[in-house]
Amino acid sequence: MKRFYLVCAVTIPLLLPLQPVVAGFSASSKGTTAVPFLKMGAGARALAMGEAFSSVADDATALYWNPASLSQVRRPSISFMHAAVFDSSAYEYGAVAGPLPHGSAYGVGLQRFSSGKIVRRDAAGFEDGSFNPNDVAVMAGVAQPWNGYSLGASVKWIRSQIVNTAQTAAVDLGVLSPLYGGRMKCAFVVTNLGGKLTYDETAEKLPSAVTLGGSIQWTRHWLTALDLKSSIDNRPTAAIGTEYTLSLFRSSHLAFRAGYNSRTLNQVDGMTGVSLGMGFTWESVSLDYGFLPFGDLGFSNLFSVSAKFGHD
Domain residues for 184? Predict the structure, then answer.
């Protein structure tokens, strides 16, 4: 365990030059960033675990959580998620990832959020047509081994349409530590570093964030993870998640997951922050479900599918 903390202590300084970028992060900036869909996650498995996933991701969702974790994708992998959010809103994530020569790995993906049809009204309150706000981000990333660590970077092109359209680019950077004893890892990730989205003459920042995460595989069946995050538009938050798997038959297993994320603490009335889910894997195909309550606002049902091809 002491060596695990030492690994994390070595990992963090690797990204200390980025400290000035995030020095102004605080809750006082809440609501000051654009395109919140960039913070909506990827994969029902990760979201059911409270988003404590920066060191856990081992499929195509790694492109979202930590580009350095792409190194854990040992075979070509695809992932797709659909989330029914509120009313007619919908969110999707899709990605492809796979290994490259010399231990490197790649990932290509897309995020999309649609608010559904919204009625436009004139100054007198009468209907005046409708519009369909939607946001899209296209991503591409690579991971490269270095002295036992994995270093990762991804670039994303972001397009946001409300009434007018704005677009910009951003970068994610990440580090994943070596495994200690085959059971423990830690990660450091900086996300959404880049330009601003300009609607008319108003420029809005992207939701940049820094995450420090760790995970422990206690047994072959039981995994726990913890992520600490500091965002430019919120106070620091913590996410904790766990997963327990049961072996079934013919290379299949059933997984039960739970998590907690403090992001909505004291912001929404009723049950919130808790997440639950389960998944079924047969051979190389996984079907996952996640349930996220948002107090008085309702809840979100998440469904995702992932598949891996070939052999390790």
Answer: 2-18+26-120+129-225
